[in-house]
Fold each of these.
Amino acid sequence: MTGNIAFLGYGLAAIGPGIGVGLIFAAYINGVARQPEARGMLQTIAFTGFALTEALAILGLVFAFIFRT
C-alpha cells in the first residue's frame, strides 16, 4: 500500500467543518425566521462563524501538505 495517511486525516478532519457550517447556517435561518428584524446582526455573526470554521478546514489542508513527507 502506497500513499500518505495525512490526506486520509484531512478527509476525516473536513467532516467537522462541514457539519459546523451546516449548523451555523441552520441556526441563522432559524433565527431569521423567528425574528426577521434581527437579520443584519445575525448575518454578521453567521458569516464570522462561517469564516472561522472554514479557516480551520483550510488550516487542516495546509497541514496535510506540510506533513506529507
Note: The CA atoms of residues 17 and 54 lie 6 Å apart.
Amino acid sequence: MTTPAPEYHVLALSGSLRADSYNTALLRAARDLAPGSMSVRVHPGLGDLPLYNQDLEQGALPDAVHELHQQVLRADGLLIATPEHNAAIPAALKNAIDWMSRMPSGAGMSGKPVAVAGASPGALGTVRAQLGLRQILTSVGADVLAKPEVIVFGAHERFDGDGTVTDEFTRTLLTDLLSELAARIKRGS
C-alpha cells in the first residue's frame, strides 16, 4: 500500500542563525510531527540574504532572494519559529520578511497562511518576539493563525543534546499548531 503524496507544502523558517538553535530544532520536530496531508521543508537559513535594499530590486534579484521568493510561491503556508533578541524578533528574520513582502509577482505574503512558534531558554519564552512578529506579518497581509500559541520557555529543559523535543506537552502543542495550519490552508484552497 502506498502513502499518498502530501497535499500541502509548508515552508519553515527559523529566525535563528545558530547551528544548534532551539528554533531550528523546533522546525525539525514540526517536520516529523506534520500530519500526513502536509510536508514541511525547513529553509536552510536566512543568513545568505543580503540586507534589504530597494536598489537591489532593479534587475535580477540576488540569488538567495530569488530562491526564497520561489520557495514562498511554491508553499501553501509558512511556519516561522523565532527566538527573542532584545524583546523583539531577530534582524535576519525581519530582513527575510522585508524581502518576502516585496516579491515582484505580488503573490508573496499576502493571504499566505502563517503559523508562528518560538523557543527560548528564558522564563518568558518568545512572548514578546511573537507579538512583534504577528504585528509585522499582519501588516504585510499574511493570514496569521492566532492559536494555538507555541511558546517554548525553558527550552534547554525541553530538548535533548541532539535537538530532539523531549517534552510531550511541547510536541502536542506543535502537533495542534500544524493541524490548525493544515485546516487554514484547506479553507483557503
Note: The first strand starts at residue 8 and ends at 14.
Amino acid sequence: MKAFAIDGYKSKDGLVARELFVPEPGDKDVLVEIHAASVNPLDAKLAEGAFKAFLPYKMPLILGHDLAGVVVRVGAGARRFAVGDEVYGRVADGRIGTFAEFIAVNEDDLAPKPKTLTMTEAAAVPLVALTAWQALVERAGLKCGQKVLIQAGSGGVGTIAIQLAKHLGAVVATTTGTANVDLVKGLGADIIVDYRKDDFAKILRDCDVVFDTQGGKTLDKSVNVLKPGGQIIGIAGPPDPRFAEQAGLAWPLKLVFRLLSGGIRRKAKRHGGSYGFLFMRASGDQLRQITALVDAGSIRPVIDRVFPFAATREALDYVATGRAKGKVVVAVK
C-alpha cells in the first residue's frame, strides 16, 4: 500500500511517500480501507518530536490520526463492525497512521460514519470533536447558561467547540481575526473579540470556562477573564501533574511537568480558578454521541481545503502555517 511517513524526527526529507505492507488486524481490530484522512497540527508537532518524551514511536512512522473509510476485514474477536461498514474515528496514540491506504484499528476507537456526511466531511470530525467533547463535556461539565471563552474560534477545534457549547446552552465568547468574524458568528458565537483590534482580557469577564487552544501569552491572560471557581482547560499549554499521572509517566517527567505548569496553576489559583491540561484520547463511544449530534444538525465540520492523496506533504505544510479555517482533509480514495 502507499503511505506517507517520516524517517525520523525533524527529518530533512520530511514526509515522504513509501510502499509498505498492508497491516494485519489483531484480534480486536478491523482493517479499514481509508477514503479520507484529515490533517491536524498534532501531526506537524509530532513530526518535530514534540511528544517523543511520552509518545515513543518507531521509524518509519506513518503520520495521521483521523480517518473515514470502509471495513474490509474483521479480527477474530471483533464484534462491533462487519465488512462493508462505513466508519470513522481518531486512531489511538501508539497506533497512528491514517496517511495511508489501509490501517488496522481497534474497534473500540471507531464509530459508524454519520449518515449526513461524505467521507471527506466525516474525516474532518473525530480528533477535533473529541477534543471539544472531552474539554467541555467531560472535564468542564459545561452547563446551560454558563459562559465559556473558546480561543481561536475559526480553527479546527474552535469551529466544533463553538457549536458544541451552543448545543449545551452556554453563552459562547470567542476570539478570531477580522476575516473570520462572520464565520464564527454563523457557528453560533454570541460574543466575538477580533484579536487584531481588541484585547480579549480587557473586554471579557466572569467566564465559567476558558478553553485555551493557543498557550503562551494567550493562556497567561486567560486567567483575567475567569470568575471565581472558573476553570481553564488548555490543549496547547504546559502539561500538568494530573496529565502526567494519568499517562503513567516516570517520576522525572512528572516533576518536569509539575514545574512547567506551576506558574499558570498558581496564577489561576490566585484568581480563584484552576488550570488543567488536556491531551485528548481516542473514544469510539464518545464519537457515537457526537455522530448523533452531527446527524441531528447540531454540529457540522468546517473544511478549509481538500488535498489529493499525492499532495499529503503539501497538506501537512499548509496546516503547519496555522492559517487554515476549520480542517484540512486528504482524499485518499
Note: The domain at 127-277 is CATH 3.40.50.720 (Rossmann fold).
Amino acid sequence: MPTNRTVNARGKRLAITALMLALAAGVAGCGTSRMTTGSIGRSGGKPLESMSAGEVHNATAALGQSYAKNPNDKRIATNFAAALQMDGDADQSLAVMRKLAIAYPKDRDVLAAYGKALAANGQFDAALDAVRRAQTPEYPDWKLVSAEAAILDQLGQKDDARQLYRKALELKPNDPSVLSNLGMSYVLEGDLRTAETYMRSAAQQPNADSRVRQNLALVVGLQGRFDEAEKIASQELSPEQAQANVAYLRQMLAQQNAWGQLKDQDKSKPATN
C-alpha cells in the first residue's frame, strides 16, 4: 500500500516530467506553459504556443523591435514578455513586466501578468503579493483568482489553491483555462485520473485554446497512452511536432522508471557495516 510519501514523490516526479516537457518546447515546438493556461500574446496572427522554436525566436525579435519603440504599450510589452518566456529568457521577460508594472501600478491586467512572470522565475511570494494587490475584493476578477490559485499550487498549498479555482469557476463557469489549471493541480499531486477529468472538460469547452488541449495530451501521455496523446497533440501541432513531443515524454517516463528501478535495487541490498 503506497504511503503519503510515495504518493507525494510520484506527484513530484510527474510535475518534473510536465515541466521538462514544457522545456522541450525549444526542441519539439510544444508551447505548454508551467502549470498555467489561458491567453498568450500573438504575433502575426499565429498563437505563440503553436510556433516552432525558430518561429518563436523570430517573433521575439520582431516584438523586441516594437517594444524598443514603445516600451510602455501594454499589449506590446506583455506580448514581448510572453515571447521572451517561451524563448527561454525568463530574466528579461520579468524585467519587461517589472518596468511595465512600475508604469501601470494599479492596472489589474499588468499586475496579473507581472505576477505570472514572477512565478515563472520562482519568486512565488512576490508573485502572490502582486496578484493580490491587483485584486479588488468587492469586485473580484476571476482571472486573478485563478492566477492566485496557480501560484498557491506551486507553493504546495493545494487545498487553498483548489478552493480558489472553484471560486474562479463560480465567477466564470466552465472556463477552460481554470478547469485546465485545476487539472494541473491534480497532476502535481499525482492523481492523473482526476486531472484528466478536468482536462477533458476544459478541452470540450467551445472557447478552449490550443494550450488547454496540449495539457490534455500531456496528462494522457503521462498515463502511458501515447498513441492517444499523439492524436490529441496532432490537432494542435504539426505531425512532426506531435511525434517529437510524445517521443520526449516517452523518454522522460522511461528515465523515471529506470531511476526508480535503481533505487529499488539499492534499497534491496543488504546493509554493510
Note: The mean pLDDT is 78.
